Every structure is written in structure tokens, then in C-alpha cells.
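Example S7 (C-alpha cells).
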């Protein structure tokens, strides 16, 4: 394993098995994986199947798995694996047990999000990584999980919000809408520092997971990421007014000028210094 990182009680890792594959084994956690390089021939309990590069695998705790792999000549097999304790999943379902019925989900967006989280492991923003991984779990619950009944709802929604696939009403407004509006007002009102996800959730009377999901439904991205983009947009305005890069970074709560530089360049494909020079 390389680049193992603890993320809110889970472990995210890039795995390169020396043998190129895995002998029969099992895990106490859910294991969510996608391949970086190569394809797998998997044996999971009594089932056999192939896993391609555009797929995500989801294995339940205790399932016995093994695989052989195929890679292009001169390359080694590698995958991103995320180890998720049962308590993390049941926290999302209000205590309902989770059993993933589909071990393979073909979803290029999900794969891209998992790879993005792994790519950001060294030096990445922990809050952004946590949000991204939470959204992956929520999507997998919709796509591949059985929660022990015809439908399930998160305790924060009183049955009006999250549901098992096929039961969610189109366009339904949830009781969280007013609370999400209040969260947006709070985020807009203070661009001087990164928000605390736990604090936002407590003020809104929601769990962190439900806040992330409801906020993303309303705005298209989770709260920490939304606030980061708002801070960067404010940074652009300040740079156009000619404010020094270091002052802008400090005023908007970035740890240092390099931190601001990295996020600004990733968002706008231009450094803040160059942006300032061509706009004043």
C-alpha cells in the first residue's frame, strides 16, 4: 500500500500488490475500489466476474475475494481502495443495515471522483476530500445497496428526503430547504475563513452527511467546496482592484500565499499574480 490516509474514520489508499493480484482474503470493512491500471478477473464468494477501468467495485464486510489481473506490457497493476467501517454506512441510513447487492457499478463519474480524492491525498484539503467521499457513498447507496426494506429515509428528513432507488419523487421539496438557505446566507456572509462542516450542520440542526447531500442537491456542490469557490471569486474581485496577492490570501482565510496560489490556479488556470497583472 502507498499513500494511505485516514479520512473521517475511513482509510483511502493506493494499492500496488507485489504479485499483481490478491489471494483469497476478506475485510471487516466495506471495500470500495477502482483500478488505476489494468483489469481484474475477480472471484467474490461464489461469483466470478471481470472488472474494467470504467467500473467501481463494492464489497461487503466478510465477503471472500481474490483476483488475477491483466495489464499492458511493462506496467504494474494498481488500484484505489477505500476501506469504510460499517458504522460510517449506518450513520447515513439512520441505523439501517447496508448490504451492497451489486458488487460492480459502471459509472465513469463515480470512478473519476474516487480517483480525484486519491490524487489529492498528498497535501489535499481534508474537508474537500471528506465531502467528495461522502457524496460517493451516498451515490453508491442509491445505485447498489439494499437497506433491508422497500425504502429508507434519513432521520433528519422524517421520511421526506432520502429514499431507496425508485422511490424519490421528482422535484419534491424537503424540510431542509429553509435550513439550506440559512446555510447559504451564513457562507455568503463570511468569506474570511473556511467553514466548519460540523458547525454548519449543528447550526442547521442536521447531520453532516445530510447537510452535504441536501446542500449539493440545492447548489450542485457540497458546502465546503461551494464556499471555497466563493472565496476564490472574491479573490478575483480583490485582485482586479489591485490588492496584493498576499493580502488577498490572508483576508480570505487561506493558510498562506502558496495555499491560495494552488487553489486559484486549479480553478482558473492562471496564477493569482498573473491574473492581477493583466487586470489592473
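Recovered sequence:
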Amino acid at each position: 500500500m502507498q499513500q494511505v490516509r485516514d479520512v473521517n474514520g475511513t482509510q483511502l489508499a493506493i494499492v500496488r500488490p507485489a504479485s499483481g493480484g490478491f489471494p483469497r482474503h476478506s475485510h471487516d470493512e466495506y471495500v470500495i475500489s477502482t483500478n488505476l491500471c489494468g483489469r481484474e478477473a475477480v472471484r467474490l464468494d461464489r461469483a466470478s466476474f471481470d472488472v474494467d477501468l470504467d467500473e467501481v467495485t463494492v464489497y461487503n464486510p466478510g465477503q471472500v475475494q481474490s483476483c488475477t489481473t491483466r495489464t499492458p506490457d511493462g506496467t504494474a497493476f494498481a488500484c484505489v481502495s477505500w476501506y469504510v467501517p460499517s458504522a460510517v454506512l449506518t450513520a447515513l441510513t439512520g441505523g439501517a443495515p447496508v448490504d451492497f447487492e451489486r458488487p460492480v457499478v459502471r459509472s465513469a463519474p463515480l470512478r473519476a471522483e474516487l480517483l480525484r480524492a486519491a490524487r489529492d491525498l498528498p497535501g489535499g484539503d481534508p474537508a474537500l476530500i471528506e465531502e467528495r467521499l461522502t457524496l460517493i457513498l451516498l451515490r453508491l447507496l442509491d445505485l447498489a445497496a439494499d437497506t433491508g426494506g422497500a425504502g429508507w429515509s434519513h432521520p433528519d428528513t422524517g421520511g421526506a428526503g432520502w429514499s431507496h432507488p425508485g422511490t424519490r419523487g421528482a422535484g419534491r421539496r424537503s424540510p431542509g430547504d429553509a435550513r439550506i438557505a440559512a446555510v447559504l446566507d451564513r457562507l455568503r456572509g463570511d468569506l474570511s475563513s473556511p467553514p466548519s462542516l460540523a458547525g454548519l450542520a449543528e447550526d442547521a440542526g442536521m447531520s453532516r452527511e445530510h447537510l452535504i447531500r441536501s446542500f449539493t442537491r440545492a447548489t450542485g456542490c457540497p458546502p465546503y467546496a461551494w464556499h471555497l469557490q466563493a472565496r476564490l471569486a472574491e479573490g478575483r474581485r480583490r485582485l482586479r482592484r489591485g490588492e496584493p496577492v498576499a493580502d488577498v490570501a490572508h483576508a480570505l482565510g487561506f493558510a498562506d500565499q502558496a495555499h491560495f496560489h494552488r487553489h486559484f490556479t486549479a480553478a482558473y488556470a492562471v496564477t493569482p499574480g498573473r491574473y492581477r497583472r493583466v487586470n489592473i
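Notes on this example. The radius of gyration is 21 Å.
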